[in-house]
Amino acid sequence: MTKNIVIAGAGPTGLWLAAELRLAGAEVTVLEQRTERDPHSKALTIHPRTIEVLASRGVEQPLLAEGIPIPQGHFAVLDDRLDFALLDTDFPITLALLQARTEELLEDHARDRGADIRRGHRVTGLTEHPGEVRVTVDGPDGGYTIAAAYVVGCDGTRSTVRAAAGIDFPGTSASVYGWLGDVVLTDPPSAGSYSRATADGLLLAVPLPGGLHRLVGHSPDDIRADRPGELTLDELRAKVTAIAGRDFGMHSPAWLSRFSNASRQATRYRRGRVLLAGDAAHMHMPAGGVGLNVGLQDAMNLGWKLGAVVRGEAPDDLLDTYHDERHPVGAELLEHTQAQTALMTAFSPDGRRLRSLLSTLIAEQPAFAKTLAERLSGLSVRYAGAHPLTGTRAPNLKFGDTTLFRLLHAGRPVLLDFRDEPGPAAPGAIVHHGRPLDDRPDWAALDTALIRPDGHVAEVTPSGEPDQHR
């Protein structure tokens, strides 16, 4: 049986998955129908949990060096922002970095790991056979078939892999359209991001690397089911001026586009030897800039599991837990982006009062604001577990000579042994002895903690209880 894994799509999700699978020792072929990387960047926000994911493989520095750090987030572009300083993370920021550059860095990382990335190769179909999947491909030199142990569709909302596997993609059609312009501003708003919401619409302006600003928003006439025509600079200027009272001297557009609130989710993230991740699994309004982040975290969850199965270290049914853990995360993604859409298009007097009330709660109720920030940032994701810590994402615990994220660089489980007299090693895991320097009572009450390769807590042994790893 072939050990090759085929990934359809060389966006951020597919590229990160390819690197993770190579780290696990699997053969990987990435098929991307575009011959060149898309210069237009739908996504530009990298949230705290995603930076942690990158840091747990030691590849965060190039993105931190190039991205514009923003110490706050927003929920539905309410006036009061979410202060990321409240978050328990080494990275209490979002990074503004164009998706095209993020993809370039992730592709370099995947190629350095040894992934075979083929541009101009379009997946046209697949059939499953005993022990393998045969993928039909239209390449620059004609059609061919490639055999794979597993196929992962990271090929976007119109996924060929999802359709070929017969996985349903139910949801809701567009009822709201938004507009987006990457432009040069001769008279930009004050440093950092800018937002304004009035009866005439909602506007968010974010600085981008390279001297551009992204202007994004909604107007009352955008609440419609039929797609408007192509966005022009004159229309963008008129909409921005109606909301902000000026156009900030916009000129030289690099990209003008529209987007909608159509929302869908695959009923299954796995069918046999076919799996889905990223936009192939979930489609939603880009509220809060979370889509790229959830896709990378899908790949982080799937990568170590698929690698372990292909290596023969885990049974095939481990892959069922990918759906079990990530499908609820996708459902929550749709829920909070749809809720934000309702608030972002609340242009009536009653709707604006609702926005004002929720904004006030963010300012006056730190616990409420922190909960929203944890959800937006991805830090709140928890998988099933009996102990309060199991299933949670582990923070970057500090030790005298290393940190947890550094221990995770190899992509293997990490057994943290906090006892004065360490126990035996755990098969397949990196073992670290010693207590963390952090002041964390919940972790101080443990003898051991087993951390999964994706940084979530697999098992813990409370102090004084029998050691599960003996």
- What fold name stands as the CATH topology of the largest domain? FAD/NAD(P)-binding domain
Write down the overall geometry.
globular
Strand order within the widest sheet?
8-2-1-12-21-20
CATH superfamily of the largest domain: FAD/NAD(P)-binding domain
List the uncertain runs.
none
Instruction: Return the average pLDDT rounded to an integer.
Output: 94
Largest sheet: 6 strands, mixed
- β-sheet strand percentage: 25-35%
- What proportion of the residues is helical, as a percent range? 25-40%
Helices and strands: which structural class? alpha+beta
Describe this protein with a few key phrases:
alpha+beta; FAD/NAD(P)-binding domain; Alpha-Beta Plaits; Glutaredoxin; 3 domains; 6-stranded mixed beta sheet; flavoprotein; FAD/NAD-bd_sf
What does it look like?
Its cofactor is FAD. Keywords: FAD, Flavoprotein, Monooxygenase, Oxidoreductase. Pfam families: FAD_binding_3 (PF01494), Rng_hyd_C (PF21274). This is Monooxygenase. GO terms for molecular function: monooxygenase activity. Helix content is 30%, strand content 26%. The two termini are 35 Å apart. With 470 residues, the chain is of the alpha+beta class. The protein has three domains: 282 residues, 3-Layer(bba) Sandwich (FAD/NAD(P)-binding domain); 85 residues, Alpha-Beta Plaits (2-Layer Sandwich), CATH 3.30.70.2450; 86 residues, Glutaredoxin (3-Layer(aba) Sandwich), CATH 3.40.30. The mean pLDDT is 94. The chain is globular. It is built from twelve helices and 26 strands. β25 and β26 form a beta hairpin. The longest helix has 25 residues. The strands form seven sheets. It has a six-stranded mixed sheet with strand order 8-2-1-12-21-20. The chain has a five-stranded antiparallel sheet with strand order 15-16-17-14-18, covered by helices on one side. Strands 24-23-25-26 form a four-stranded mixed sheet. α1 packs parallel to α4, α1 packs parallel to α7 and α7 runs antiparallel to α8.
